[in-house]
C-alpha cells in the first residue's frame, strides 16, 4: 500500500503548486515533524510512505497513493478538512490523527474515513491491518496510554530532502505529557494528566546517532527529575549541544540546572505566561511563582542558558496596561526571545469548557485558533484592544534596536553559539511580523505623534537596504 502523510499549513504559510520553490526563510521556526516521522516508523515495511509538510512543499492532490493520513492541531483543522475532502473526492481513503481530531472526533468524522484518537502506537498498525482486511473502523481509540518503550526511532530519512528548511531535522523525545494541569493546556488533556518516559538506553542510543546540534522536543524535559538527572549525567561525555522546553522550576534545583548546562543545554523554551499571581492561580499554574520569576530567570541565564519566554495576554486579570507591563518585564529580565500568545481556549481543555459555558467564545473559526487572533471576549478590555495590544507588544519586542542589543548581550553572557541563535531567531520573528503586517497599538496610550516611531521606521528601512533584504508587502492574515 502507498501511504501519504501530510502536515497541513496555514494559508499564509502554505507552499502552493504554482510556486513550489518560494519557501519563506523561516527555518528557525521549523523543526522535525516528529509525529509524522514516528507514524512512518510505526508503518510495516511492506508499505511505502511519503511525507509532505505544506510549510515547505506543495501537496499533490493527484498523487498515486492508496491511503492519506493527516495530522493536525486546531488552527489547521479547516485546512485539514479541505485536504481530506479533496482526496476523498478522488477516491482515496483518508485518516485523521493529532490533537484536534482526538478532542473533536465527531466533527472530524464528517471529513475522514477513520479517526485515530490519541497516540499512534498500537492504533496505527491496527488501522493498517483492518484496512488490508477490508474492515476499517470509523474510530480508533485506546483505553490506556501506550508504553513508550515501543516507540520506534523516527523515519528522519523521509524529510532529509527538505532538511535545509528546518532549524534541525533531528528532534528527539525523552518523554510525553506533563503532570501539571494548567487549564489552558491541551498537552495535559491529550496525555490524560500523565507524564511517561522512554527507556533511557534507547534515548541515549538515539542521541549518539544524531549530529552534535539537535533538539529535545519534550513538553517538559525535567518532568521526571530523577530521569532528567540520569540523562544529563550520561550526556556530559558526548559533548552535544541542544535546546528544549522546560518548566521554570529547573531554577529551583541548582545541581540539576548545572547538569543540564554541562550536558550541552544552550537554550530553553520556558512557559512564564504572565507576571500576575492571580492569573497563574486562575490557570492552576501557581507553581510558576510570579513573585520570584526574575530571580529564577536570572539563575538560568547565569548558567549560560538562553530563554525563549512563552507569554500569554488576555487572561481575566489583564487590562489595557498588560502590554507595556509585559514588555517592561521582558526587557528587565533580559529574555532572549519571545513567543507571545493571545489567550486561546483549545477544545478538550478545561479553559474551553469554562469560557464556552460563560458564552465568552466569540469566534469559532478554527483557523483563528493559532494564538495570534482574539477569539474570546476578555474581561477587562475589548477584543479589539486585546488584538491591537498583542500586536503592538510583539512588534515592539522585535524592534531592530532591541534585537541588536539582545544579540550583543547574549554574546557576552551566553557565548557565541547562543548569540547567533538569538540573533537568527529574533530576526525570523521580525521577518514574520513584517511579512504579516503586524504593528498594533498600545491601548493604554492615546494616539499621537511619536518621533521615536518615525526614527524606528527609518532605521528599519536603512537596515533592510544595507542587508539587501526586501520588505514583503502583505496584508495581515487576520483580515
| Cα gyration radius (Å) | 22 Å
CATH C-level class of the largest domain: Alpha Beta
How many domains?
2
CATH superfamily descriptor of the largest domain: tm_1862 like domain
Helicity, as a percent range: 25-40%
How confident overall, as mean pLDDT?
A: 92
User: How many helical elements?
Assistant: 17
- Tell me about the largest β-sheet: 6 strands, parallel
**CATH fold node name of the largest domain:** pyruvate-formate lyase- activating enzyme
Parts with pLDDT < 50 across at least 5 consecutive residues: 467-479
How many beta-strand runs?
Answer: 14
The proportion of strand residues reads 5-15%
The CATH architecture of the largest domain would be Alpha-Beta Horseshoe
Per the principal axes of the C-alpha atoms, what is the gross shape?
globular
Entry summary:
With 479 residues, the chain is α/β, with parallel strands linked by helices. It has helices spanning 34-42, 77-89, 99-103, 105-109, 123-132, 186-190, 200-209, 225-235, 254-262, 277-282, 293-302, 322-332, 350-357, 383-397, 400-413, 416-436, 451-467, and strands at 2-7, 48-53, 67-71, 93-97, 114-117, 139-141, 171-172, 175-177, 195-197, 213-216, 241-246, 265-273, 306-313, 337-342.
Amino acid at each position: 500500500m502507498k501511504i501519504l502523510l501530510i502536515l497541513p499549513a496555514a494559508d499564509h504559510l502554505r507552499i502552493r503548486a504554482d510556486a513550489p520553490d518560494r519557501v519563506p526563510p523561516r527555518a528557525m521556526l521549523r523543526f522535525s515533524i516528529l509525529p509524522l516521522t514516528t507514524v512512518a516508523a510505526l508503518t510495516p515495511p511492506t508499505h511505502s510512505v511519503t511525507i509532505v509538510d505544506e510549510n515547505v512543499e506543495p501537496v499533490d492532490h493527484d498523487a498515486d497513493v492508496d491511503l492519506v493520513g493527516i495530522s493536525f492541531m486546531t488552527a489547521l483543522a479547516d485546512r485539514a478538512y479541505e485536504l481530506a475532502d479533496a482526496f476523498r473526492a478522488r477516491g482515496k481513503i483518508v485518516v485523521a490523527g493529532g490533537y484536534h481530531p482526538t478532542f473533536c472526533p465527531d466533527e472530524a468524522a464528517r471529513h475522514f474515513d477513520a479517526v485515530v484518537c490519541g497516540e499512534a502506537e498500537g492504533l496505527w498498525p491496527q488501522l493498517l491491518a483492518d484496512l488490508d482486511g477490508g474492515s476499517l473502523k470509523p474510530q480508533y481509540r485506546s483505553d490506556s496510554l501506550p508504553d513508550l518503550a515501543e516507540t520506534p526511532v523516527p523515519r528522519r530519512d523521509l524529510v532529509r530532502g527538505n532538511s535545509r528548511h528546518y532549524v534541525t531535522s533531528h528532534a528527539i523525545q525523552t518523554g510525553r505529557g506533563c503532570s501539571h494541569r494548567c487549564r489552558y493546556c491541551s498537552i495535559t488533556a491529550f496525555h490524560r494528566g500523565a507524564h511517561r518516559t522512554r527507556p533511557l538506553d534507547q534515548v541515549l542510543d538515539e542521541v549518539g546517532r544524531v549530529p552534535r546540534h539537535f533538539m529535545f522536543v519534550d513538553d517538559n524535559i525535567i518532568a521526571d527529575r530523577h530521569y532528567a538527572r540520569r540523562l544529563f549525567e550520561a550526556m556530559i561525555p558526548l559533548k552535544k549541544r541542544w535546546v528544549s522546553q522546560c518548566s521554570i522550576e529547573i531554577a529551583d534545583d541548582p545541581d540539576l540546572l548545572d547538569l543540564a548546562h554541562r550536558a550541552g543545554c544552550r537554550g530553553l523554551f520556558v512557559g512564564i505566561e504572565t507576571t500576575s499571581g492571580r492569573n497563574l492561580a486562575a490557570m492552576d499554574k501557581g507553581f510558576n511563582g510570579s513573585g520570584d520569576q526574575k530571580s529564577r530567570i536570572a539563575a538560568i541565564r547565569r548558567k549560560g542558558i538562553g530563554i525563549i519566554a512563552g507569554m500569554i495576554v488576555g487572561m481575566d486579570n489583564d487590562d489595557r496596561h498588560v502590554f507595556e507591563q509585559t514588555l517592561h518585564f521582558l526587557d528587565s529580565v533580559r529574555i532572549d526571545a519571545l513567543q507571545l500568545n493571545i489567550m486561546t481556549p483549545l477544545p478538550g481543555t478545561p479553559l474551553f469548557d469554562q469560557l464556552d459555558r460563560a458564552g465568552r467564545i466569540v469566534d469559532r473559526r478554527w483557523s483563528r485558533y493559532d494564538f495570534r487572533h482574539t477569539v474570546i471576549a476578555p474581561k477587562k478590555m475589548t477584543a479589539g484592544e486585546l488584538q491591537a495590544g498583542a500586536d503592538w507588544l510583539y512588534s515592539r519586542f522585535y524592534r531592530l534596536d532591541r534585537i541588536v542589543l539582545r544579540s550583543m548581550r547574549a554574546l557576552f553572557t551566553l557565548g557565541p553559539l547562543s548569540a547567533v541563535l538569538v540573533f537568527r531567531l529574533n530576526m525570523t520573528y521580525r521577518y514574520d511580523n513584517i511579512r504579516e503586517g503586524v504593528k498594533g497599538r498600545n491601548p493604554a496610550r492615546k494616539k499621537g505623534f511619536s518621533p521615536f516611531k518615525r526614527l524606528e521606521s527609518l532605521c528599519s528601512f536603512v537596515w533592510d537596504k544595507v542587508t539587501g533584504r526586501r520588505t514583503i508587502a502583505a496584508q495581515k492574515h487576520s483580515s
